[in-house]
Amino acid sequence: MILANHLVRTFSDGDHQAVQALKLDHFYLSSGENCAVTGPSGSGKSTFLHCLAGILRPTEGTVFVDDLCLSEMKEKEAAVWRASYVGYVFQKPLLLPFLTVMENILLSAELAGRKDSRTEAERFLSAVGLDQYGSKNPVHLSMGEQQRVSFVRAVIREPRLLLADEPTSSLDRDNSAVLMKLMLQYQKQSGCMLICATHDPAVQALFDHQFSMNRRKME
Predict the structure, then answer these.
(1) Does this model's pTM top 0.90?
(2) How far apart, in Å, are the Cα atoms of 14 and each of 11, 21, 43, 72?
(3) How far apart are CA 53 and CA 85, in angstroms?
(4) Any idea where the domains of the chain sit in the sequence?
(5) What are the φ and ψ backbone dihedral angles of 80, each rounded to 5 degrees?
(6) Given strand 86-89, what is the order of strands in its sheet?
(7) 25 CB-side CA count, 13 A
């Protein structure tokens, strides 16, 4: 489960003034559930996901994932936990251009402590329709294909928490539908928790729960 209470995250601007990027009273998600985090740009969706992943520590408040309090973890502890527990699909694929598709995926698995993952990586690539793309470099793939690789790179870790930050914002409708179908199928089959930040009503409608950053409540 995920439990966040009284989260505040501030940053300093160029004049050393505190800018509030996130304010959230309460968020809860049970194990095995999925949720769309909604709200316009600037409402704190990405900052919230970063706090849930242990990438950012909240300025105030607490974040619990299962029995662990992320907001009290040291940076190295959070990095080790994140590598083994979290899969992250970013808004842009962020694939390493000097590695092949397969090398990008296997590096993610290795960082999570998972060895001998090539057969599983090949199975995932086949499932997303990219079984012939393992030896290609990302530059030769379309944006939709790169996002599917990004999805495989995230789930090869077998994460208990899968986070996606506006994953369809740079995709057309068809590619968006393909990616979201894959993501939700994986969530149902694996039983992981899935949280997706999105401003797209069509994507929001696919999720069992919605959490509005504007109204700061679950629907």
Answers:
(1) yes
(2) 10, 15, 20, 28
(3) 9
(4) 32-59+74-218
(5) -65, -45
(6) 86-89, 161-165, 193-197, 34-38, 209-212, 217-218
(7) 6
Q: Is 160 helix (H, G, I), strand (E, B) or coil?
A: coil
Please give the CATH superfamily to which domain 32-59+74-218 belongs.
Answer: P-loop containing nucleotide triphosphate hydrolases (3.40.50.300)
Tens digits of residue pLDDT in 96-144? 999 999 999 999 999 999 988 999 999 999 999 999 999 999 999 999 9
**Segment 32-76, tens digit of pLDDT:** 999 999 998 889 999 999 999 999 999 999 999 998 999 899 999
Q: Which 8-state DSSP code applies to residue 45?
A: H
3-class SS of residue 30: coil
Beta-bridge partner residues of 67: none
User: At residue 115, what are phi and psi to the nearest 5 degrees?
Assistant: -100, 165
CA distance readout (Å), 133 to 38, 157, 192, 202: 33, 20, 27, 29
